[in-house]
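Section 5.1 Outputs to date
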Amino acid sequence: MNVLVTGATGFIGRHLVRELLHHKKYDVFCFVRNPKKAKLLEGLGAQLIYGDITDKKSLAKLKGYKIDLAFHCAAYVENKNIKKLHQVNVQGTRNVCDICLEHRVSRLVYLSSVAVISGNTELPLREDLPFAATNAYGESKIEAEKVALEFRNKGLAITILRPPIVYGEDEPHALKFLLKLLKARLLPLINQGENILHLAYVENVVSAMLFCLESDEFLKGSFFVADKEALRVKDIFKALAKGIGAKPPGRLFKLTELLLLNLPGIGKKISFFLKDRIYSLKRIESLGFKPHFEAKKSLIISAEKLYYGK
């Protein structure tokens, strides 16, 4: 079976490509934009096709290939560039859906985000809550999901998965920086670390992406995919600290906490840890999927491998 993967040089995409090739029943085609990043895929056994999902002309290269199945992982995550968020997340998704409909792929698995409903206040959050974003990235993913639903109505078999923050041993965004702060004892707990943060280990996400191929029930609605356990912030940081041989973070005095929360820039970042984020997994579990990797162990392993390069 020929499988197309967009965003294959990204964090989740790389793990997905490795897992697909491990199964040995897929011929994997990676649609990649950046030749430098594409080196991360060299030697794995996937075929690289160079192009840009925001450019319909470059996507036309795929017309020379037989594509049976597709995974759309490509996305832009920076909130500062609204134009690029729309180009990649919205127009790029439209272009990918269009080519998949034309190819009559058996299924497109689209990787969305919990950001499309994160503006809702009830807990745990459910997939059937109305669209509500808290930032520009979330708004772009809402528009992208609307595109996916539009193409589903046109007859494209599409599965929509919504992960929260995804972590792992080669996570390229914030985790390494957090580990450095932990090691230096510069990451104190806000609100004593009592708030709950539901995360997703990358291998649990990839497992769900493959599992959803087994049932047509995954072609209806959307599905959260996260770790089974939603942990308190203090337990997350304790696991990360254990992975790098550091002491767990200390707690701030209330007055110090209030002062930091009112500082321009840093206050907004700190306040992230003051909101509970819990996602109901009832929908995906009702179809038989269970996250295989336990959260605390995965956090420890991820921290150890990322910090020490093991």
